[in-house]
Structure formats: C-alpha cells, structure tokens
Design brief:
The chain is of the alpha/beta class. It has a domain of 179 residues: 2-enoyl-CoA Hydratase, Chain A, domain 1, CATH 3.90.226. 42% of the residues lie in helices and 17% in strands. A 6-stranded mixed sheet has the order 1-2-3-4-8-11, covered by helices on one side. A hairpin with an 8-residue loop joins strand 1 and strand 2.
C-alpha cells in the first residue's frame, strides 16, 4: 500500500515553532487598484489652510490693536511701561530696627499699570508689611483702583516718597489717580514734605452722557475709599475743583487718608 506523505507534512507544519500560517490571498489580476493621491497635493492644501488660519488671526489682531485703548495697553504692557520701579532692600519708616523692603514706583499710571505692579510685587517677593513708595502725577483711574486693591490684598503699606540705595526716604508727591493707589495701603505713612493732591476726575474718551459717566465714576471712587477706611470727605474735596488741590498734613490725617504720620513738625 503506498504511503501518503502529505499527512507527515501537515503534522510537521503544525508542530513548527512559528505556528501555522497561510499566504495572504492575492487580488485578482483584473481588479483595478485605487489610485493614490499625490503627496505634493496634500502638502499644498496644508499650506493653504495654514495661511488662511494665520490670515484670520492677523486680521483679528489688527482690528484689536487698531482701537486706541488696546494699543495703549499693549504699549504699556510690553514695549514701554509708563512706570518704573526700584527695589530697596531696607527702609525705616516706623522706627523698627530691622526696616522693611520697599518697592519705589515712579511715573504715570498707564493702561497696563495694574498687571505691571502685580508682576513687580511677585518679582520682589514682598510680604505683608512691606512698603510701596509712590511718586506719580496720576493717570488711568481704573488701573489705579486695581492697583490699590492689589496692595490691600497683599497686606502692603504705602508712603509717598522716593528712596536712595541706602534706604533713605525723600519727599515726593502723589496726585490724582495716584491717591487711589496710596489709599490701598493697609497702613498709609505720611512723610514730612510729601504731598497728596486731589481733583475732580473726568473721562478722556467720548461718552454718550458725560454727566452720568462722572456720577458713576464718583460713586465707584466713594465706594472704594469707604472700603479702604478713608473718609468720604476726600471725595468731596476731589469734586470741588478740576485743578489739583494739595492736602495739608493734618487735613489728610483728618480724612484718615494718612493713618500714620511720620516726621510731622
């Protein structure tokens, strides 16, 4: 009887280490193949989509920056800040032997002054009780209010003056919106020879009803000053004149604008 060797081949195949396998079926010779899209065409479309996206972003950015207030913010935030600061490691304002770290700020309060101040406070690692020294003619009211809120939230104190490298404090002035920043101090020092100036706030942008806008601004400032512990009489002093009115030392104390007078004669 003839021996069928096909069974032996099958057993040997099933015992192979790689296990059984089959050859992939071949496509019929007459079946049409799906044409492949040229890689170059996909790249072209990717470039076109990218250009369209960037164009839309650029147009939107141009529209945003074309507004005066937007450009003023970007300029003050990234290109030429209107305020400058100097970190003074040690100033003595309250007679304490160890002194306090102070951040001396000078210049006009610009459109991005609030975020600028937060960054400077973080960089200086100021802690509650440290000092913000102010020397400014004023500027943006809205930014000044936020700056004052930031100073109060951080538990910082304020004073009007400038400082040298040795920590000596010299007299300076703080007027208009700067007074709002000064009011944010948890303690507000009065430096001999320094001055606080107030006046009526007006808007510099066109509004539908200037009177209503002025009343709203006055209400906001009155609420802010009240929360900061300052008498409403300071708002009355502001509303009395469009020119800067310089407050006397005793007047500022009576308004509780200055809470801790220093160097008073």
């Amino acid at each position: 009887m003839p021996v069928d060797h096909r069974d032996d081949e099958t057993n040997r195949f099933q015992r192979a280490p790689t296990g059984p396998w089959v050859t992939a079926p071949r496509a019929p010779a007459n079946q049409p193949r799906t044409p492949r899209r040229a890689p170059g065409r996909r790249r072209i479309w990717s470039v076109v989509i990218f250009v369209l996206l960037m164009s839309s972003v650029g147009i939107r950015a141009y529209r945003d920056l074309s507004r005066p207030e937007a450009w003023a913010y970007w300029k003050d935030q990234y290109f030429s800040p209107s305020l400058t600061s100097t970190l003074v490691p040690r100033v003595e304002l309250d007679g304490s032997a160890q002194g306090r770290t102070a951040l001396a700020i000078r210049g006009t309060i610009g459109a991005a002054a609030a975020s600028w101040l937060r960054d400077k406070i973080d960089q200086a690692h100021l802690i509650p009780g440290d000092v913000i020294l102010l020397s400014s003619p004023g500027g943006d009211v809205g930014q000044a209010l936020i700056m004052g809120e930031t100073i109060r939230a951080r538990g910082l104190t304020t004073a009007v003056g400038t400082a040298d490298a040795s920590g000596g404090v010299r007299a300076a002035y703080c007027a208009s919106a700067c007074v709002l920043v000064f009011a944010g101090g948890k303690t507000r020092y009065g430096i001999k020879g320094s001055a606080l100036g107030v006046h009526r706030f007006v808007t510099t942008t066109p509004v539908h009803d200037p009177t209503a806008e002025a009343q709203q601004t006055t209400g906001i400032i009155l609420n802010y000053m009240s929360r900061m512990g300052v008498s409403s009489s300071v708002v009355e002093a502001m509303s009395q004149t469009s020119d800067v009115r310089w407050l006397g030392a005793r007047e500022a104390e009576a308004m509780n604008l200055v809470t801790d007078p220093l160097g008073r004669p």
